[in-house]
């Protein structure tokens, strides 16, 4: 009999994607014939057979039809000696989960809201798990708020993964939330948008204020413009400015205090007015202003029509304070016998990045404290965290217990590690954060540790991995997963207690993948570690887009010239938005961040404990993102595989 074997595979079955499993046959002196089959509702879909040698890793692929549907899926694996009966060495079967999601479908609208007699234009982006275009047909439907199909585009074919369509609205459309529904390969995605019946007023009053304001700013700048809707020019009349403030997290029934800022008569107001409200005057509305929203309302009485119109704008006010947090959350897990790395990120209260001036002269100290099982505490030496040269505003600190003097005998009694961080900038502003890492112990105290020195893994390059062990092993094995699919595996010779080896980064790994290393001891214990790392799959086909303004001598209007430079045969999709509609950030556009988040939905555990953070810009829009490699230390090998 084959005494030991280890088979790793995914729990998820996706239509159109081959189901892979890694077969490890151990302690068998002759080849083993391994048969694997995939069943749905007791019906055999497909299978594969392979002859596996001793102490080798074999990757088996079972094709899954693209038209597979929901059902009860099972994986049946058996090992046989050559020319022997079925299951003569081992036999095993496990339940699998079917997921129809096999594509990334994004719907891009040219506007988040439409009115009567406008044309709804949208584009559908279809991508596979390898970030390549889906070259097949898709069914598109347009539904009104009552669920009635207003327009149907059946079997839209595309060879570039882009499908565009449009629908003109009538003079009396149904108001409410409409939907664009896309169906491809049994998967359905929806994108909502608003349709409203808009009756233009006699004139419009537009109030412009900054999206964000800090308490350290001297004043709030307000700009008011008023124009006739018919194109009759600027409006003159009596203008009254009102202001009110309320906390962002206010209880139901909150009544804000409203005061008159300024009253301007028709002699001074003729279509445009700019003013500044001092911060001292805003403090009369609400104290403190940190974490509040200031609303400025403009009321205008037209001199000619004697009609009153108004407009408003809201600004969020935040204090000039810093917030500090640990990536991965305040609760983490670590191995006492291995190095432990923690990452911290700092941001302002409004979510924006710290200015370069604040980071020129700063200090971030971390105080580690150990708590033992008997309740005793031990404060380790305070250490200064170093800011990452690749990510300003991100720090890394490492704690290595076995390097502490006279501490090797007590590592098995550590209960948890408490990290207290304190940041101080050149202005004297401080921020604090704490995290607690629970210690993981094993009966044999055998551990593997996996880390990487590659800061920006990109498709087409290599990921450099470093494996550390605290016991002697001749080799270890690894597998690579992404989006619930087993992509690669291998066996690596361990030539030193700290061994380095590379793996190629493929498009199937984007936007993030997980590497699992493991070793099977002679006593049957599986020692393992995992590392989840981000993959940049959007930098393969670099291209540039430049926009220039052009004028024609015979035409009074100017034109816009768009120039695209890239690889021959590449497809570049362009979209133009009105600036005020784009700043709404309603989620109807397509961005790299939205694409990465959509692809992360393939992995249900992608958001748990990830080392990721996104800042905001000064205008309150989504800003840059940092995504670092992270460990998933679990209490046992079975939990690691979950």
Automatic annotation (TrEMBL):
InterPro entries: A2M/Complement_sys (IPR050473), A2M_N_BRD (IPR011625), MG2 (IPR002890), MG3 (IPR041555). It comes from the Eukaryota. SMART domains: A2M_N_2 (SM01359). Pfam families: A2M_BRD (PF07703), MG2 (PF01835), MG3 (PF17791). Residues 448-584 form the Alpha-2-macroglobulin bait region domain. One of its GO terms (molecular function) is endopeptidase inhibitor activity. PANTHER family: LD23292P (PTHR11412:SF172), MACROGLOBULIN / COMPLEMENT (PTHR11412). This is CD109 antigen.
């Amino acid at each position: 009999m084959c005494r030991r074997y280890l088979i790793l595979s995914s729990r998820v079955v996706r239509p159109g994607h081959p189901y892979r499993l890694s077969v490890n046959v151990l302690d068998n002196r002759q080849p083993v014939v391994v048969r694997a089959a995939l069943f749905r509702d007791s019906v055999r879909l497909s299978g594969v057979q392979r002859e596996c040698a001793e102490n080798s890793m074999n990757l088996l692929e079972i094709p899954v039809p693209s038209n597979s549907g929901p059902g009860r899926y099972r994986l049946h694996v058996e090992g046989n000696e050559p020319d022997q009966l079925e299951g003569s060495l081992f036999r095993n079967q496990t339940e699998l989960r079917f997921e129809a999601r096999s594509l990334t479908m994004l719907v891009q609208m040219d506007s988040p809201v439409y009115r009567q007699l406008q044309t709804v234009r949208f584009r559908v982006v279809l991508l596979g798990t390898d970030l390549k275009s889906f070259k097949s047909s898709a069914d598109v439907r347009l539904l009104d708020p009552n669920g009635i199909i207003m327009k149907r585009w059946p079997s839209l074919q595309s060879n570039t993964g882009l499908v565009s369509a449009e629908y003109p609205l009538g003079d009396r459309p149904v108001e409410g939330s409409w939907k664009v529904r896309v169906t491809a390969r049994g998967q359905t995605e929806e994108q909502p948008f608003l349709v409203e019946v808009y009756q233009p007023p006699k004139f419009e009053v537009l109030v412009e204020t900054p999206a964000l304001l800090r308490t350290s700013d001297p004043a709030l700048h307000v700009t008011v413009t008023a124009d006739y809707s018919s194109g009759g020019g600027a409006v003159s009349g009596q203008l009254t400015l009102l202001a009110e403030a309320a906390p962002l997290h206010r209880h139901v029934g909150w009544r804000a205090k409203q005061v008159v800022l300024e009253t301007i008569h028709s002699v001074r107001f003729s279509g445009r007015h700019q003013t500044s409200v001092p911060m001292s005057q805003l403090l009369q509305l609400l104290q403190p202003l940190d974490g509040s929203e200031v609303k400025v309302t403009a009321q205008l009485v037209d001199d000619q029509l004697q009609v009153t119109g108004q407009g408003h704008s809201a600004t969020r006010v935040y204090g000039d304070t810093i917030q500090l947090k640990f990536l991965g959350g305040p609760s983490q897990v670590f191995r006492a016998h291995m190095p432990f790395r923690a990452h911290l990120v700092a941001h302002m209260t409004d979510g924006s990045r710290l200015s370069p001036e604040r980071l020129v002269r700063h200090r971030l100290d971390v105080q580690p404290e150990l708590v033992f099982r008997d309740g005793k505490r031990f404060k380790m030496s305070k250490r200064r965290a170093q800011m990452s040269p690749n990510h300003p505003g991100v720090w890394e600190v490492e704690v290595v217990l076995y390097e502490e003097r006279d501490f090797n005998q007590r590592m098995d009694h550590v209960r948890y590690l408490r990290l207290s961080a304190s940041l101080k900038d050149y202005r004297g502003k401080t921020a604090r954060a704490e995290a607690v890492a629970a210690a993981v112990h094993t009966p044999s105290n055998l551990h593997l540790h996996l880390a990487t020195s590659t800061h920006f893994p990109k498709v087409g390059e290599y990921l450099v991995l470093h494996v550390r062990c605290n016991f002697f092993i001749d080799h270890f094995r690894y597998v690579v997963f992404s989006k619930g699919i087993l992509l690669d595996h291998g066996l690596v010779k361990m030539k030193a207690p700290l061994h380095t080896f590379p793996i190629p980064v493929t498009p199937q790994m984007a936007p993030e993948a997980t590497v699992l290393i493991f070793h099977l001891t002679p006593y049957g214990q599986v020692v393992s570690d995992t590392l989840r790392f981000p993959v940049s799959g959007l930098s393969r086909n670099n291209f540039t887009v430049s926009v220039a303004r052009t004028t024609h001598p015979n035409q009074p209007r100017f034109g816009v010239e768009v120039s695209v430079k890239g690889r021959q045969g590449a497809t570049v999709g362009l979209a133009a938005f009105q600036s005020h509609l784009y700043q709404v950030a309603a989620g109807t556009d397509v961005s790299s961040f939205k694409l990465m988040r959509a692809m992360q939905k393939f992995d249900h555990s992608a958001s748990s404990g990830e080392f990721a953070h996104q800042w905001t810009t000064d205008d309150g829009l989504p800003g840059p993102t940092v995504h670092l490699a992270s460990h998933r230390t679990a209490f046992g090998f079975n939990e690691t595989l979950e």
